[in-house]
Amino acid sequence: MASSHPSDAAQIAKLAAHLKWAKCDDRTTATAAARKAFLDRFEREVDPDGTLDPADRATRAAHAKSAYYARLALKSAQARRAKATARKAEQPAGGEA
What is the C-alpha to C-alpha distance for residues 66 and 76, in angstroms, rounded to an integer? Predict the structure, then answer.
């Protein structure tokens, strides 16, 4: 389903995703490789040469993953705060919206 209009791309992707999941019997199995690749990324980050003891590497990777999510949470909070500040600045004097 090709379209030459750029704004159609998101709608086409959404349609394709819905079709995929409508035909999928086991979502967990279907996404297992992606989850493994995501988690392997943290192991490579903390032990790029693969020299650490597997238990130590797993512990460090768990911390790297926690740091990743903490960083996302911080950025999200900062973005929400900035958006709220911008909304407040746009309000007319007297606080009436």
Answer: 15
Q: Which residues contact 30 (CB under 8 A, 6 or more apart)?
A: 24
Report pTM. 0.70
* φ, ψ (nearest 5 deg) of residue 49: -95, -5
Is 58 in contact with 43 (CB distance < 8 Å)? Answer: yes
Q: Which residues contact 58 (CB under 8 A, 6 or more apart)?
A: 43
The residue written with tokens 């392997």 in the block is: 40
How is 21-89 classified by DSSP, letter by letter?
A: HHH-S-HHHHTHHHHHHHHHHHHHHH-TTS-S-HHHHHHHHHHHHHHHHHHHHHHHHHHHHHHHHHHHH
23-55 residue pLDDT tens: 999 999 999 999 999 999 999 999 999 999 999
